[in-house]
């Protein structure tokens, strides 16, 4: 059998960013409005620093304003909440993202709930979680939304397909399952207590792996021809004698590529889609805050 088609998240996200840039340009020319994204980073986690830098770069490239707030690791919770209250009131800021994870002394849920739901471009506020579940005008979490765009581009109508989401976090697994349900998939959510995970995964036409365990999903768990979305971002040591680290997903790619019909690589799959969808959410939030219609993006 021939190898799986690679789902190119770099290429797809570049196209999405182009469409966003065009709309940002139109907003500025016709309404004198520039969408603005505020990103808050607390502490010096190196991975978080890399993500925040790349979000800033992409935001500016798209013609939006980027406001990055870097706070020391020992910032009191109160101070962070005060900063968020200021961003909520700032008319130049249409989207607010607080980079996770936060230091242990800060209650992440409290911080998320302090963000104005209209500016919650991560889609983590309970109002947006509720709207997604009930089918309202939600801001949808970026990683699941980006994953869904890749699936629809590849498969078209998803109605009736068997989807297995591995992982039930609030930021990936649960919203991913909601989106697939909205698309009329038959959805199974698997997690660390799931019995016989390989047998559950073998039913799936669509597998979304969001576990955080390097290469956990094996090739022989997959139904031949299925579509695999690998959300995992795991930094592991390169095989000896090489030095340094490399990124791998939650799926054993070399095995899976011989069984699946299509698969996202890591890197270059879901990761770049997450950032493009963050920009999309910022544009959508800006348009809604200004009561402006938006072409479909
Ligand atoms: N590409 C991107 O843009 C993004 C990538 N990520 C990556 O996605 C991965 C998942 O992230 P996130 O959802 O935040 O992770 P969490 O750690 O919050 O959740 C992991 C989930 O996996 C489940 N799990 C753990 N071990 C197993 C197992 N052996 N079998 C089945 N399920 C298991 C857990 O189950 P239980 O609930 O029972 O503990 C949990 O629901 C990580 O690698 C992360 O780096 C995350 C965000 C964005
Ligand atoms: N409030 C909040 N919102 C988030 O959306 C959020 C967060 N916190 N905390 C951390 C996770 C992780 N995340 C990624 C974004 C981009 C890539 C990405 O661009 N990855 C590239 C490669 C990156 C590299 O080389 O290190 C790729 O997969 O091709 C990955 C992961 C967003 N997250």
From TrEMBL:
Residues 141-289 form the Tetrahydrofolate dehydrogenase/cyclohydrolase NAD(P)-binding domain. Pathway: One-carbon metabolism; tetrahydrofolate interconversion. GO terms for molecular function: methenyltetrahydrofolate cyclohydrolase activity; methylenetetrahydrofolate dehydrogenase (NADP+) activity. Keywords: Amino-acid biosynthesis, Histidine biosynthesis, Hydrolase, Methionine biosynthesis, Multifunctional enzyme, NADP, One-carbon metabolism, Oxidoreductase, Purine biosynthesis. The gene is folD. It comes from Phaeospirillum tilakii. The keyword NADP applies. Residues 7-122 form the Tetrahydrofolate dehydrogenase/cyclohydrolase catalytic domain. PANTHER family: C-1-TETRAHYDROFOLATE SYNTHASE, CYTOPLASMIC, C-1-TETRAHYDROFOLATE SYNTHASE, CYTOPLASMIC-RELATED. This is Bifunctional protein FolD. Catalyzes the oxidation of 5,10-methylenetetrahydrofolate to 5,10-methenyltetrahydrofolate and then the hydrolysis of 5,10-methenyltetrahydrofolate to 10-formyltetrahydrofolate. It catalyses: (6R)-5,10-methenyltetrahydrofolate + H2O = (6R)-10-formyltetrahydrofolate + H(+); (6R)-5,10-methylene-5,6,7,8-tetrahydrofolate + NADP(+) = (6R)-5,10-methenyltetrahydrofolate + NADPH. It holds the Pfam family THF_DHG_CYH. Homodimer. Its EC number is 1.5.1.5, 3.5.4.9. Belongs to the tetrahydrofolate dehydrogenase/cyclohydrolase family. NADP(+) binds at residues 167-169, 233.
């Amino acid at each position: 059998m021939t190898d799986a088609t690679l789902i190119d998240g770099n290429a797809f996200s570049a196209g999405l960013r182009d469409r966003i840039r065009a709309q940002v340009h139109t907003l500025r020319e016709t309404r004198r409005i520039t969408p603005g994204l505020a990103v808050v980073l607390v502490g010096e986690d190196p991975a978080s620093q890399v993500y925040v830098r790349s979000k800033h770069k992409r935001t500016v490239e798209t013609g939006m304003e980027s406001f990055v707030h870097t706070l020391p690791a020992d910032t009191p919770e109160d101070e962070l909440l005060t900063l968020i209250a200021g961003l909520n009131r700032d008319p130049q800021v249409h989207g607010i993202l607080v980079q996770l994870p936060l230091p242990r002394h800060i209650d992440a849920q409290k911080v998320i709930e302090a963000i104005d739901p209209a500016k919650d471009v991560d889609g983590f506020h309970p109002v947006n979680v509720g709207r997604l579940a009930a089918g309202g005008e939600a801001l949808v979490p970026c990683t699941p939304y980006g994953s869904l765009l890749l699936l629809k581009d590849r498969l078209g109508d998803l109605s009736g397909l068997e989807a297995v989401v591995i992982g039930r976090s609030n930021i990936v697994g649960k919203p991913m399952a909601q989106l697939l349900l909205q698309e009329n998939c038959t959805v199974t959510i698997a997690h660390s207590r799931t019995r016989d995970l390989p047998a559950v995964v073998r039913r799936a036409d669509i597998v979304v792996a969001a576990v955080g365990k390097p290469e956990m999903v094996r090739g022989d768990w997959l139904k031949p021809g299925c579509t695999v979305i690998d959300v995992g971002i795991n930094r592991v040591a390169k095989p000896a004698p090489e030095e340094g680290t490399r990124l791998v997903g939650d799926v054993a790619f070399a095995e899976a590529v011989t069984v699946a019909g299509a698969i996202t690589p890591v890197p270059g799959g879901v990761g770049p889609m997450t950032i493009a969808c963050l920009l999309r959410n910022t544009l959508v939030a800006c348009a809604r805050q200004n009561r402006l219609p938006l072409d479909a993006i």
